[in-house]
Amino acid sequence: MPVGTSRLVPEPEHARLASESFRILADPTRVRLLWVLLREECNVGRLAELVDASPTVVSQHLAKLRSARLVDTRREGTYVYYSATDAHVGRLLTEALSYAEHQSGAASGDDPHSYAL
Asked: How many Cβ atoms sit within 10 Å of the Cβ of residue 83?
C-alpha cells in the first residue's frame, strides 16, 4: 500500500483484533486501571485505593488485562507491580476519555482536555 493512503475497509483480522481490544476496554474499572498504569507502576493495594474498588475486584480486572497483554508485572519481594505495556492503548484511551469529557459537557469546543499522557 503506498504511503499516505488509507484502507477503505479494514482487513478482517485487523477488525477482529480491534473489536477484541474494545471488548476488553468496555469496562469502566478497567479503563480507570489502565489510565493509572499508563502514568505509573502500581501494586494492587494502591490501585484499589485510586479507583475506589476492593483489591479482589482490582485483581480480577488485572488478570483480564494481563491475559490480553495490556499490562505487565514485576515482582519485588512480596509485592507485584503492574504497568501498562502499550502506547497505542494510551493514545486510544486519551482520545476516548477526551471524547467522553466533551460528551458529558465537562469540556466544549476548543477547551483543553484533562486527559493527556
From this structure: 15
